[in-house]
Design brief:
single chain; 276 residues; elongated
Length: 276
């Protein structure tokens, strides 16, 4: 074993508890590869305080922190993830039950799935969620701590695609999954709509839903993620290019004709429509 450097290590708070066992495994792995806490902090781009918390055994740090430490110290990720889940908060034995994102239909389904996404991310603090969303605010939207808390606690529905993406960013959901979540949000919005409106029959409302869903699917096929509700076939529509990440305004009429992102100019076969 490599010689330890730095000040003596404090004993783990509760070595017989699962959170203490996880902390001990992380600490021993760091010592085995010969890294100090400061060196490990630089390697995983975290603070020394965060490394200390992970090794103290008092609380379970978020999964992304545990994962990064495990990777830096050459631990088996599957084994560490199982230990991390077993070291969850007392009284929490399972994640919130929610349908798979492709099966979400009702506001309650979506609210449960969003809370589950937060739990799977290690239950990050509101401060952390706000900071993560702020780093990507130019691409998506800011997310206040109040909004994050209300969405997390199922007291507030997601009001827009931009807010949905900001919450997903705050929970470190992969951007590749954003289109599926966007489709789920659209289905939920349709479920919330009244069965009929003044001057519109149920059949007419159903046709409108099909048009909106088809428009979103057409944009996704062109490599564009819509950032707002469908405005109309000839109207400008804010969307983010999955190829270059740029946010621009597109007309569905142009996208249907094969005109996509004017910045990255990738062909449709590469996942983004060819630019005009």
């Amino acid at each position: 074993m490599a010689r330890r450097r730095g000040r003596p290590l404090a004993p783990i708070k509760a070595p017989d508890r699962r959170v203490g066992q996880l902390a001990g495994a992380l600490r021993q792995a760091r010592l085995r590869v010969g890294l100090s806490r400061a060196e490990l902090a630089v390697k995983v781009k975290r603070s020394v305080t965060t490394i200390h918390r992970a090794e103290a055994g008092r609380v379970r740090v978020p999964w992304p922190v545990t994962r990064d430490i495990a990777m830096a110290c050459h631990l088996d990720l599957d084994t560490v993830e199982r230990a991390w889940r077993q070291a969850g908060r007392p009284g929490r034995t399972r994640l919130t039950e929610a349908p798979h994102v492709t099966l979400l239909r009702t506001p309650a389904d979506l609210a449960a799935a969003l809370r589950r996404a937060w739990e799977k991310n290690g239950e990050p603090s509101l401060r952390m969620m706000e900071a993560r969303a702020e780093r990507r605010a130019k691409e998506y939207s800011p997310l206040s701590r109040t909004s994050a808390w209300r969405i997390r606690e199922r007291k507030q529905a997601v009001s827009s695609l931009k807010q949905l993406y900001a919450y997903l960013i705050a929970c470190e959901v992969a951007e590749a999954d954003f289109p599926v979540w966007a489709q789920a949000w659209t289905r939920v919005r349709h479920h919330e709509a009244p069965v009929s409106r003044r001057g519109a029959s149920p059949a007419s409302l159903a046709r409108r839903h099909l048009v909106r869903t088809g428009a979103t699917a057409m944009m996704l096929e062109a490599g564009l993620v819509a950032l707002e509700p469908y405005p109309g076939f000839l109207e400008p529509w804010s969307a983010r290019c999955q190829g270059c990440g740029a946010v621009s305004r597109f007309r569905l009429s142009n996208v249907k004709a094969g005109l996509g992102c004017r910045i990255c100019r990738r062909p449709r076969g590469a996942g983004v429509a060819r630019a005009g």
